Amino acid sequence: MLGPVILAASRSDKMRRFISAAPGTKQVVGRFIAGETVEQVVPIIEDAAGKGLEVTMDVVGEDITTPEQAATARDAYLELIGRLKDLGLGTRAEMSVKLSMFGQALEGGHELALTNVRPVVEAAAEIGTTVTLDAEDHTTLDSMFAIHEELRKDFPQTGCVIQAYLFRTEEDARRLAAAGSRVRIVKGAYKEPASVAYQDKAETDKAYVRILRTLMDGEGYPMIGSHDPRLIAIAQELGRKAGRKLDEYEFQMLYGIRSEEHIRLAAEGHRMRVYTAYGTDWYGYFMRRLAEKPANLLFFGRSILTKG
Predict the structure, then answer these.
(1) Mean pLDDT for the stretch of residues 130-158
(2) Which pLDDT value is given to residue 290?
(3) 193-227: per-residue pLDDT in tens?
(4) What is the DSSP letter of 217?
(5) How confident is the model over 286-298, as a mean pLDDT?
């Protein structure tokens, strides 16, 4: 099983230095990371809008160890939102945030993360868009859901993410499938113990379908985070059975993965949102993409053996 090995490597400073220095790394990273600065990603957002796509923007970063770093992460999102406002692109782009970036893991982290994320949510609302709180490992979820509930008091459009491989998620989905909610369902990419999560892919897929049915039958707005053709087809069928119009749910896929499918779904009339990451601290995000799909690892392996 390569996934756990790659995830372990994502936490290794030695491996970080090796991969960053590899000759083919820049080429491969560019497949998954849209750029390092706001100015580099603006043309990508504009191009997506021209193709009928929407985006959710993730300013990547890892290992926040001080409140000052958390404030810097907050300010990076505020800079992005300000640029989107200037360009009139607010309604085409939402934000995805990891609360760990906003200081959740620090001492007093729950309140610190809430304090840092609130101005981002406020700024997003001012330009006609919103924020989705990404799910991280299972130990952070009670805090994330509490912050989500608090933010929704003033900004009910604030979304959150649930992970199908966790045992708790079916209950979470029933609670979240309420009017006005926005919920992204993903399979889950963190290494979780057997005490809290399915270890078998088939069991995770079955749970994904059960949870998606709950969301489709509910009164909220489901966001299907998957590249799996079978699950996409099941989602379409569940949407039809639930009587949903095509704009009453959406698909979400990662930048650089199955790009032709992005266009196909949008052309069929579906809302299609591309999860677009950018920033200088790309290593952890990049390694999780490799862990999720062996084909990505093979692509990377071929590239680092190519000079130039």
Answers:
(1) 97
(2) 65
(3) 999 999 999 999 999 999 999 999 999 999 999 99
(4) H
(5) 60
Mapping DSSP onto H, E and C, the string for 191-215 reads: CCCCCCECCCHHHHHHHHHHHHHHH
Q: Is 184 a catalytic residue?
A: yes
3-state secondary structure of 153: coil
Whether residue 71 contacts residue 116, with contact meaning beta carbons closer than 8 Å, is answered with: yes
Beta strands in the chain (DSSP E): 54-59, 93-97, 131-133, 159-163, 182-186, 221-225, 250-254, 271-278
* CA proximity to 248, closest of 201, 195, 179: 179
The yes-or-no answer on residue 174 being catalytic is no
Q: Is 281:65 a contact under the CB 8 Å cutoff?
A: no
**Strand 182-186 and strand 93-97: pairing?**
unpaired
- pTM value is 0.87
Question: Of the listed 184, 213, 273, 289, which one is catalytic?
Answer: 184
Which one is catalytic: 58, 134, 172, 205? 134
